[in-house]
C-alpha cells in the first residue's frame, strides 16, 4: 500500500511533465506468483491466482480471488469471534511477462484502465469479470462480505442486527474492491493505472453513487444505472402494492389483468408525446386512471373490478404519507409491467428486508401489514437504515473537485426500482451543485423511455434500448477526451442491424422532438415536471431522519 502511494505520486509528476501516459519503472510478475505475495499480507485470509485459458470469445486473463478481512468482533458490529470476509475477484489481462506481444496498448493485453463492476440485489457472490478483461480492462467484482442472495445475512441468530455485515454490504465491500483492484494492478504490472472506472446497474448503480458520495477520489468515471439508492425507502415501498391488493382485493390481481391494464395505460398515453409508437416518452405526464378500465366482472381478464382498479391506481401512485398529505415514496410508472412486484409472489428482496432488517423476525409475515401499518414499517426502515445505506447524499462537490464524471441512466418502465427516485436524487444533487449548468459539467442523467430494469422493452417494443456498453464508451470519451455526452444513440433491438427504431436518448431534462421526420434533442433549461419533483419526499428535510441519527446504528 505504501509503495503504491509512492508510485502514484511519481506517476502524477510524470503526467504533469508530459501530459501523456509514461509507465513508471515496470516490473511485472507472473500471475501464479501473486498468490504467495497476497497470502503474506496481514489482511488477506485466502488467495488464489491462476491464468484462465481462453474459452470461446473470452480471452485469457490472470484471475485473482482474495478474501479481505480488516475488521472483526463486536466492536465493529460483528458477532463475537466473527471476522469480516469480503471476497473479491480481480481479472487482469495478461502482462508482458506472460504474453509478450500484447495488444492492450499499455502493457501486454492491458489497456491501462480499471473497470470495477457492480453487483445486483443483496450481492452475496463474486461475479464474472470477463466483460472487462475481454476489452483490455482490469475488471473486479465483490460479494460485499456475505454469501448468498438473501437479505438474512443482516440478522444474527439472536435477532439482533449484524451491523458489521450491513456496513460491508453498504460500503466496506465496494471500497475494498476499489482499493484491491488498484493494488493488484501495481503488483501484476509493476505500474499504476491511468484511469479508473466504475460500471454497475441496480445495486451496482447504488454502489457507484456510494463511491461518488463517500470515496470521491477513487474513480475518474462512474456509470450508474437504475440505482438502488434510497434503499431504506424504496425497498419497503416495493411491498406496498402487495399490501394494497391483499387488503382491498384479498389476493394478487391476475397476471392477465395486470398486463391488460398496463397496455391500456400505454394506449391512453402514447400520443401525449405526439409520436404514435406505443412508447410513453414521458411517463410522468401520464395520469391515466385504472378506474377507466373498470367493467365490474371479476373474471374478465380485459378489465378490472372497482377494487382492483383502486389497487392499481395506488400501485402507480406509490405509498402516501398517512394523514400528512404527502407521499412516502413513488410508484411504478404507467406502462410498466406490474407482475414483477405485484404479481402472484411478492419481490423477495423487499420481503427479506421487512422480515430480517425492519422487524428482525424470521417468522414475520408481510400479510399482517395494512396500508396504515405499512407507514410504520417504512418509517422504521428509514430510521434504522437511511444513514447506512440510503446513499442519497446530494453533495457531490468532492467528486466534482476530483475531476470525476458520472453518468446515471434509468428505464422509464423499470419494474423494480421506481424511476422517480432517480429524478428526485438528480434534482437534489442539481440544487446542491448550484443548478443544472454546473451539475451537467460532471454528472448527467439519461432517462430511457419504455425501458425495463437495466434494459429491455417488454410492453413498449419500439422503445430504444439501454446499451450499457455504449453508455460506458460515452463515459470513457467524457473522462479521457472531455467530450460530455448530450445524447446517446439507441436502438430498439439488441442488434442495431435489425432495429426498426433508432433515436437519440437525450440527457435530462432535454426533450426528444421530431423535426422534419428526424429526431433530435431539444435543450431544456429545466424539467417541466420540476414542481412535482420538488414537492416529493426528502429523507433529510421532511422526515426527521436527521434528528434520529443516533438511533440508526443500534
Ligand atoms: Ca409515444
How would you describe the overall organization of this protein?
The chain has 554 residues and is of the alpha/beta class. Among the domains are: 27-193, no CATH class; 234-379, no CATH class. Helix content is 34%, strand content 15%. The chain has 18 helices and 15 strands. The chain has helices spanning 2-18, 34-39, 130-133, 163-189, 203-214, 231-237, 240-248, 255-269, 306-317, 339-342, 348-358, 371-389, 397-402, 419-433, 436-439, 468-481, 530-534, 539-542; strands at 44-52, 61-68, 86-93, 113-117, 138-142, 195-201, 221-225, 320-321, 326-327, 405-411, 443-448, 487-491, 502-506, 511-515, 518-522. The strands form four sheets. Strands 1-2-3-5-4-6-7-10-11 form a nine-stranded mixed sheet, with helices on both faces. Strand 4, helix 3 (130-133) and strand 5 (138-142) form a beta-alpha-beta unit. Helix 6 runs antiparallel to helix 12 and helix 7 (240-248) packs antiparallel against helix 9 (306-317). The chain is globular and about 75 Å long. The two termini are 33 Å apart. Bound molecules: calcium ion (CA). Calcium ion binds at residues 270, 273, 275, 277, 279, 281.
Sequence-ordered SSE layout with sheet pairings:
Elements: H1 2-18, H2 34-39, E1 44-52, E2 61-68, E3 86-93, E4 113-117, H3 130-133, E5 138-142, H4 163-189, E6 195-201, H5 203-214, E7 221-225, H6 231-237, H7 240-248, H8 255-269, H9 306-317, E8 320-321, E9 326-327, H10 339-342, H11 348-358, H12 371-389, H13 397-402, E10 405-411, H14 419-433, H15 436-439, E11 443-448, H16 468-481, E12 487-491, E13 502-506, E14 511-515, E15 518-522, H17 530-534, H18 539-542
Parallel strand pairs: 4-5, 4-6, 6-7, 7-10, 10-11
Antiparallel strand pairs: 1-2, 2-3, 3-5, 8-9, 12-13, 14-15
The structure holds calcium ion.
Amino acid at each position: 500500500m505504501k509503495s503504491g502511494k509512492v508510485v502514484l505520486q511519481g506517476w502524477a509528476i510524470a503526467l504533469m511533465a508530459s501530459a501523456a501516459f509514461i509507465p513508471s519503472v515496470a516490473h511485472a510478475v507472473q500471475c501464479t506468483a501473486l498468490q504467495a505475495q497476497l497470502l503474506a499480507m496481514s489482511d488477506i485470509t485466502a488467495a488464489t491466482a491462476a491464468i484462465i485459458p481462453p474459452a470461446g470469445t473470452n480471452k485469457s486473463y490472470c484471475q485473482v480471488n482474495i478474501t479481505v478481512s480488516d475488521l472483526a468482533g463486536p466492536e465493529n458490529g460483528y458477532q463475537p469471534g466473527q471476522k469480516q470476509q469480503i471476497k473479491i475477484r480481480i481479472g487482469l489481462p495478461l502482462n508482458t511477462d506472460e504474453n509478450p506481444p500484447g495488444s492492450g496498448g499499455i502493457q501486454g493485453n492491458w489497456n491501462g484502465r480499471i473497470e470495477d463492476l457492480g453487483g445486483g440485489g443483496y450481492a452475496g457472490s463474486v461475479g464474472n469479470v470477463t466483460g472487462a478483461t475481454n476489452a483490455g480492462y482490469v475488471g473486479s467484482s465483490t460479494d460485499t462480505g456475505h454469501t448468498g442472495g438473501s437479505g438474512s445475512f443482516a440478522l444474527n441468530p439472536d435477532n439482533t442486527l449484524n451491523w458489521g455485515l450491513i456496513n460491508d454490504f453498504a460500503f466496506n465491500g465496494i471500497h475494498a474492491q476499489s482499493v484491491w483492484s488498484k493494488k493488484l494492478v501495481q503488483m501484476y504490472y509493476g505500474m499504476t493505472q491511468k484511469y479508473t472506472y466504475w460500471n454497475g446497474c441496480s445495486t451496482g448503480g447504488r454502489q457507484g453513487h456510494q463511491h461518488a458520495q463517500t470515496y470521491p477520489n477513487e474513480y475518474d468515471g462512474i456509470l450508474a444505472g437504475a440505482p438502488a439508492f434510497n434503499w431504506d425507502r424504496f425497498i419497503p415501498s416495493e411491498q406496498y402494492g402487495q399490501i394494497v391488493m391483499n387488503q382491498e382485493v384479498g389476493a394478487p390481481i391476475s397476471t392477465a389483468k395486470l398486463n391488460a391494464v398496463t397496455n391500456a395505460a400505454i394506449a391512453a398515453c402514447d400520443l401525449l408525446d405526439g409520436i404514435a409508437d406505443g412508447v410513453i416518452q414521458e411517463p410522468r405526464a401520464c395520469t391515466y386512471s385504472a378506474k377507466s378500465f373498470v367493467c365490474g366482472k371479476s373474471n374478465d381478464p380485459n378489465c378490472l373490478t372497482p377494487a382492483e382498479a383502486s389497487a392499481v391506481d395506488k400501485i402507480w401512485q406509490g405509498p402516501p404519507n398517512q394523514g400528512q398529505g404527502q407521499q412516502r415514496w413513488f410508484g411504478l410508472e404507467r406502462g410498466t409491467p406490474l407482475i414483477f412486484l405485484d404479481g402472484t409472489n411478492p419481490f423477495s428482496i423487499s420481503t427479506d428486508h421487512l422480515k430480517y432488517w425492519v422487524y428482525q423476525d424470521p417468522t414475520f409475515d408481510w400479510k399482517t401489514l395494512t396500508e396504515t401499518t405499512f407507514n410504520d414499517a417504512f418509517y422504521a426502515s428509514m430510521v434504522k437504515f437511511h444513514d447506512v445505506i440510503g446513499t442519497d447524499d446530494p453533495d457531490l462537490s468532492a467528486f466534482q473537485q476530483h475531476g470525476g464524471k458520472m453518468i446515471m441512466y434509468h428505464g422509464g418502465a423499470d419494474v423494480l426500482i421506481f424511476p422517480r427516485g432517480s429524478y428526485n436524487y438528480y434534482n437534489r444533487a442539481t440544487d446542491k451543485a448550484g443548478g443544472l449548468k454546473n451539475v451537467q459539467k460532471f454528472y448527467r442523467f439519461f432517462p430511457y423511455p419504455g425501458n425495463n430494469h437495466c434494459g429491455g422493452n417488454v410492453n413498449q417494443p419500439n422503445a430504444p434500448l439501454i446499451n450499457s456498453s455504449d453508455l460506458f464508451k460515452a463515459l470513457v470519451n467524457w473522462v479521457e477526451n472531455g467530450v460530455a455526452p448530450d445524447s446517446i444513440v439507441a436502438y430498439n433491438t439488441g442488434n442495431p442491424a435489425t432495429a426498426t427504431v433508432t433515436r437519440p436518448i437525450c440527457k435530462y431534462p432535454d426533450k426528444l422532438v421530431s423535426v422534419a421526420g428526424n429526431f433530435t434533442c431539444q435543450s431544456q433549461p429545466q424539467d417541466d415536471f420540476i414542481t412535482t419533483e420538488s414537492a416529493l419526499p426528502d429523507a433529510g428535510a421532511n422526515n426527521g431522519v436527521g434528528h434520529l441519527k443516533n438511533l440508526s446504528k443500534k
